[in-house]
Amino acid sequence: MDLVYNRLTDFSLSDPTHAALHDAYVAGAAVVTPHPRAHALYADKRNLITLGNDALLASWGVSDEDRLILQAAIPHTELVTADHAQALWARRRQLFFKPVAGYGAKPPTAATSSRAASGAISSPAALWLRRWCRPASARWTSMVWPPA
Q1: Under 8 Å between Cβ of 24 and 1
Q2: Which helix (H) or strand (E) holds 79?
Q3: pTM here?
Q4: Which of 74, 110, 111, 116 would staple 92 via disulfide (CB 3.0–4.6 Å)?
Q5: Is residue 3 within a helix (H) or strand (E), and if so which, with residue range?
Q6: What distance in Å separates the CA atoms of residue 58 and residue 56, rounded to the nearest whole number?
Q7: Is 139 in contact with 147 (CB distance < 8 Å)?
Q8: Is the dihedral of CA 19, 102, 3, 34 positive or negative?
Q9: How many distinct helices (H) and strands (E) make up the chain?
Q10: Are 35 and 6 in contact (CB under 8 A)?
């Protein structure tokens, strides 16, 4: 093998059916793009939980300015656990549920029905959620970021 363009939804290559590719990647016999580490660093949605934890970011020395940008850009996100299933049920109409791992283009589960919310909350191990928010809209007046 030379280069493998990873179109799998098993980005960590942990599924037993991907063992040959995993072993080749670990042994350096194949270049995988995107590789498992890149996905873990840049695409794993659980990172949104950390990026939204203002107290943690402050303890790491992240500037007030950078934390304000993150707060404005990232909706509240949390991992679904059985510990707070009742609280999630009470807020279900304001939440979206997504699998932690897997294909990112699948639509989120809008918990607007009891059935959708019940299914999402009853199998929490692989889900994260975020608060519902309107899609962002921006009018670009220049190519400079951040806008003035």
Answers
A1: yes
A2: strand 77-79
A3: 0.61
A4: 111
A5: strand 3-5
A6: 5
A7: no
A8: negative
A9: 7, 6
A10: yes
Which pair of tokens denotes residue 84? 């707070």
Sheet containing strand 95-99, edge to edge, reads 77-79, 127-131, 95-99, 109-110
Q: Tokens at residue 6, please? A: 């990873």
Instruction: Give 9-31 pLDDT, tens digit per residue.
Output: 788 898 999 999 999 999 999 99
- The label of the residue with tokens 């194949």 reads 30
The encoded tokens of residue 131 equal 């608060």
Amino acid occupying residue 49: I
Neighbours of 129 (CB within 10 A): 27
Alpha carbon distances (Å) from 112 to 66, 116, 137? 33, 7, 24
d(CA 118, CA 49): 22
